Amino acid sequence: MTKKIAVLPGDGIGPEIVAEAIKVLEVLNAEVNLGLEFEHGLIGGAAYDVHGSPFPQQTLDLAKQSDAVLLGAVGGYKWESLDISVRPEKGLLGIRSELELFANLRPAILYPQLADASSLKPEIVSGLDIMIVRELTGGIYFGQPRGIRVLENGERQGFNTLIYKESEISRIAHTAFQTAQKRQGRLCSVDKANVLECTELWREVVTEVGKQYPDVALSHMYVDNAAMQLVRAPKQFDVIVTTNMFGDILSDCAAMLTGSIGMLPSASLNTEGKGMYEPIHGSAPDIAGKGIANPLATILSAAMMLRYTFNEGAAADRIEQAVNDALDANVRTADIYSDGMKKVSTAQMGDAVVSALIKGA
Ligand code: NAD
């Protein structure tokens, strides 16, 4: 059966890293006949330049007709002065909400080969394996009313709305409990229930849903403490579930525990398991076009796609093993380079994964 993938490279390093993920997928596709078909589309600044919109109708149609979306990243200096309604990041928020990708799964795994790349002591991070489940289509990033208004005295006032319905909290809670069931069976729900009523409801609903998962140990933590614990003793966590904005911040923090933002994939799923897969980092305009970006987060996102949307767990395992083998072969892009290693370009890292994949076959 054909599996159609919408490929949206986006901006900055997006096209460079997505090309490497496609290279890896094509090798596997030819070898084990996965039936993958790729169709490219535009999103972000690249789409704005051609269509005047960061998320044109053509891209929405392509995404809806596809089984999964593989995305690079959006944004860059060139588009920073545009009106917020057409900035590249709007394209990302648009596709997430149009496809109802409410659940964002962000693993933070420390590869033992990169323990020295972490800013924390190796004993604090070695063996780290956390999954952050971030609510992605609600909360303060989407809540209305929002804007900047002028008060009677002429002063400007910015405002946003943190808002969650019970149904939105309960569906992400179910995803998180089920994720914890497949791991170590521990779930920590992060909120700010002592100050924000919206997250007081969050805590109540998560607790209620938890009664259906007696095999999962549920705990609650305020977000400020969670930020502190993530850098103090991160291995205490198995799965973390949290709101859109808290998840955005905490997952970047967890990312750095692993040494490089260039190593971490993500999956964003809807209720039918359709997903969008992307690295957690941005378009890195500071290094775009130099051929030095780390493509591993995108390659690992492609592995998540095989596992979560296409149920091809064995193929996903093979990609993850090939990444591990490439690191064992001591090849490193600049962001994860250390003395004694072989510094490679984006394309050479993709080649190293392909060659490990072929060797492992
Ligand atoms: P960023 O993640 O793009 O970059 C942060 C730092 O990490 C930079 O120094 C960059 O060079 C480095 N980096 C990121 N990915 C890397 C990789 N694969 N290999 C090596 N180094 C890498 O975040 P930023 O600088 O805050 O944002 C840049 C642009 O990206 C902005 O326009 C922002 O809005 C956008 N952004 C997009 C997404 C997305 O598309 N999902 C996410 C975050 C930021």
The CATH architecture of the largest domain is: 3-Layer(aba) Sandwich
> How many strand units?
14
CATH T-level fold name of the largest domain: Isopropylmalate Dehydrogenase
Q: What is the number of helical segments per DSSP (H or I, 4+ residues)?
A: 12
Q: How is the largest sheet built, in terms of strand order?
A: 2-1-3-12-11-4-5-10-8-9
| N-to-C order of helices and strands | EHEHHEHEHEEEHEHEHEHEEHHEEH
Oligomer: single chain
Specify the biggest β-sheet.
10 strands, mixed
Shape: globular
CATH class of the largest domain: Alpha Beta
Spans where pLDDT lies below 50 across 5 or more residues: none
Describe it.
With 361 residues, the chain is α/β, with parallel strands linked by helices. It folds into two domains: 194 residues, Isopropylmalate Dehydrogenase; 160 residues, Isopropylmalate Dehydrogenase, CATH 3.40.718.10. It contains twelve helices and 14 strands. The strands form three sheets. It has a ten-stranded mixed beta sheet with strand order 2-1-3-12-11-4-5-10-8-9, sandwiched between helices. Strands 6-7 form a two-stranded antiparallel sheet. It has a two-stranded parallel sheet with strand order 13-14. Strand 8, helix 7 and strand 9 form a beta-alpha-beta unit. Helix 1 packs across helix 10, helix 1 runs parallel beside helix 12 and helix 10 packs antiparallel against helix 11.
